[in-house]
Amino acid sequence: MIRRAWLVLVTLLLFSCALALITAQFRSRSLFVDLESAQQEARQLDVDYDRLKIDLARLSQPASVERAAQKLGFRAPDAAQTVYLNLPQSSAASPVAPGSKR
Amino acid sequence: MKTSQSRKSVRGARKDRGDRVGFNANPLLTVAIPAWRSKLLLFVLFVSFVALGGRAFYLMGGVTTAFLQRQGEARYARTLEVPATRGRVTDRNGIVLASSVPARAVWAIPDDVEATSAQVVEIARLLNVNVGELKRRLANDDRSFVYLRRQVDVEVVERIDELKIPGIHASREFKRYYPEGMNSAHVVGFTNVEDRGQEGVELAFERELAGRAGSRRVIKDRLGRIVEDDWLREPVDGRDVALSIDSRVQYIAFSALKGAVEKHRAKAGAAIVVDVRTGEVLALANWPSYDPNVRGRLSGDAIRNRVLTDTFEPGSTMKPFSVATALEAGKVRPDTRIQTAPGRMTIGDRTIGDAHAHGVLTVEEVVAKSSNVGTAKIALELPAQALWEAYTAFGFGQAPRIGFPGAVAGRLRPAKTWRPIEQATISYGHGVSVTLAQMARAYTVFARDGEMVSLTLTKSDSSTPAVRVLSADTARAMRRMLEMAVGDEGTAPAARIAGYRVAGKTGTAQKLKNGQYVKEYVASFVGFAPVSDPRVVIAVMVDEPGTDVYYGGQVAAPVFAQIAGATLRTLQVAPDGPLETPKALVALRQAP
User: Fold this and answer.
1) What value of ipTM does the predicted structure carry?
2) Rounded Cα distance, B144 and B267, in Å
3) Neighbour count for residue B64 (Cβ, 10 Å)
4) Which residues fall within 8 angstroms of residue B391, CB to CB, at 6 or more apart?
5) Rounded distance, CA B370 to CA B96, Å?
6) How confident is the model at residue A92 (pLDDT cuts 50, 70, 90)?
7) Is B370 a catalytic residue?
8) Residues 10 to 39 of A: which have CB under 8 A from any B CB?
């Protein structure tokens, strides 16, 4: 009698393990599909970023900026029109480079 | 199952007829069956099972296992190529000069293509190709594979896919974009359709820029989604290369050069801007140029990088090196007086001359007024070997280690072969050939108190090691002379700019064609600014000005002035000179 109960128990255990394995496998696969599509999206965003960088470089070309400025009637200041400020010695020693964050 | 059904139907049929036969009374049961029949059946079943077992064993463990496994995997597993992206080329401030984005190559199997005429027209429109050409390619039945167009944008291919025409396919590739176009074409170079470097930095840094494609084994489900994977080889993207080029300075140099070449109807021109402190090349411009985005119409003439791969006889820009060598050797002092009258000098059977006769000049004035006779007299004071060694130390006759494809050494013959006339002409830049990059590098000696830096095309954070060539005193004396050369009495007042003190030397060299000097010239100017603390060396060369104006001081010096003024402002260098543009200069610039 006890032996039969054991058998049933073990059989049930076996079946639940088998089902759990299937579920786990299924879940892992569907998660992998999600991961894959997220990675695909990341790649696409990288490509878009590259493309935008190219567009930025193209649009910020000095040539096109100059054309636009000319259309607006802008002129580059010559040396005589420029006001030069003498900074205190410490900061004059390390002038702010254009584009650097300070 | 089938038998029980048929039995049921038999029973039903009998029921209908009302003819009931009990199971016990089945007449079949009364038939006597010989015992061997059931044994035979059993035996046949047994043999069948053994055969099945044997077959299974054979398939699982036999010789054909690998084949079967491959066949099985082919149903669900795929090996995917994972492309690697080529590295970006950027300027020193991170502005993109070259970058790759995915594209598609559209190809067809002509035999498989079934498209209506309207569809072909639509494809031709989308691919931007000639309809007739497209039809001809699709009609080409001899070939099983034809490219319809390469480097097509991904969006365009999606639209073609929507047409769902059999036999037309697309495969992945990359398209390289050069947003700066012509401006920096000669530095950056270009790639071919296979994304391999062909010219310029793209070729020189091929190993860094090129990625290595990877591959992975994936398992796909019924819907074609990837559910498991295994990397066979990870892809390695190419590394980005940051150049020393500053795209703003590059534009300044390029547009100034282009303007000058067009104004003087010259054959070509080249310019280079070098950071004196680091040896970084801030700009390297050439005209004629080409657009690397449109690779169909590349001519050899436009591709030539005249700064690094073309040599020319430098003419008078060579003089400061001869004079500096004499100063360094103690043969002359800056105020030593030299008789240059009557502006001609005969050495052996040849006579050399000055453009204008000057009379007695100091060594300083010899440089400022660019006297051939004066320079030759100074150079002849020195042994040929000493001069040769000095020129070699300045880098002439040696290929620069700049890592650029096709950079050449120029030609400086060994001193043993020099006759006196040659020693004289070489001292003022004839009978010797150099590249513009060599000239610019050699002038860093004067700009840096006697040290020479190596040029580099990549952004360098550390200071480049410099080699001492001259004493600091000699270099300072040369700076003074070179500043005099752009003075009112010098050969190049047009090189001056408002706000900064500049120094430099003009060169006007007759060209040698088939061993004869012809009436065609190379006008050049090499200089640096600001003189009080030099930041940039700029060398400009204009090849064969087509008008009557061909002197370096008239053709190349204004280009130098334009580049120097705008560059120093862009680099935010503090001015060290008078801010007003000299009146004489205004008149000079306005003169045709």
Assistant:
1) 0.73
2) 47
3) 10
4) B321, B325, B397, B412, B426, B432
5) 43
6) very low
7) no
8) 29, 32-33, 36
